[in-house]
Structure formats: C-alpha cells, structure tokens
Amino acid sequence: MDSSDGYIYILSSPSSHVKKIGFTQRKVTVRLKEWRKSCPSMDYKLQSWLMCRQVKKTERLAHRIFAKKRLARHTCIDCKKHHRELFLLPITNDACLSVILWANLLALSL
Ligand SMILES: [Zn+2]
C-alpha cells in the first residue's frame, strides 16, 4: 500500500440516522472494534467501506460535502470527546457511498 492509500468507512448507528464517516490505513474491522469499545452507546455497525488513494484528502472532501449535515457540537456520553465526523444522513448507503466515491475522484484530480 502507498502511504496515501487507505479506507474510508461508513459506520451506522441503528437507533438513528447518524453515520460516522472516517478513514483508516489499517483494517476497517480493527477500527470498528475500537469504536465499538470506546463509544458503546452508538452500537456502530460497519455499513460500507471504500479503498482509495489520497484517503485523507478524500475524507476531508467528503466531510466538506456533508458539512451541512454535520451534528452540532456535543460531548459523547461514552468517551467524552467531541466527534467531528458524525453526520445526520437519512439517505441510503448507496447514496452515501456515491458521495464518497465522488469525493475520491475529486481528491485524485485536485
Ligand atoms: Zn465517543
């Protein structure tokens, strides 16, 4: 893997339309396990992931595209952190994945 390669993942929280969009350069399942441990109340499920180049840039662009859907500043009841990568997205998984793919194409062309 190139140093810019990685995975963008979408985690969903079954009790809401909140989705977490993040990236990792390790195994997606390992990252999921960490999130499930640090923030158990969200009961995260791995919805999708996409392997891509320029993964950090892609994540940044995807977050920017979804900026208006970003959850307001809050404190996580589990880990007490303010998660900036949470979005209220009542859309299908395919729609979400399409936006990430689009962000990736943008990241590669910029
Ligand atoms: Zn948390």
From TrEMBL:
InterPro entries: Meiosis_regulatory (IPR053006), Phage_T5_Orf172_DNA-bd (IPR018306). Residues 13-100 form the Bacteriophage T5 Orf172 DNA-binding domain. It comes from the Eukaryota. SMART domains: T5orf172 (SM00974). This is Bacteriophage T5 Orf172 DNA-binding domain-containing protein. The lineage of its organism: Eukaryota, Fungi, Dikarya, Basidiomycota, Agaricomycotina.
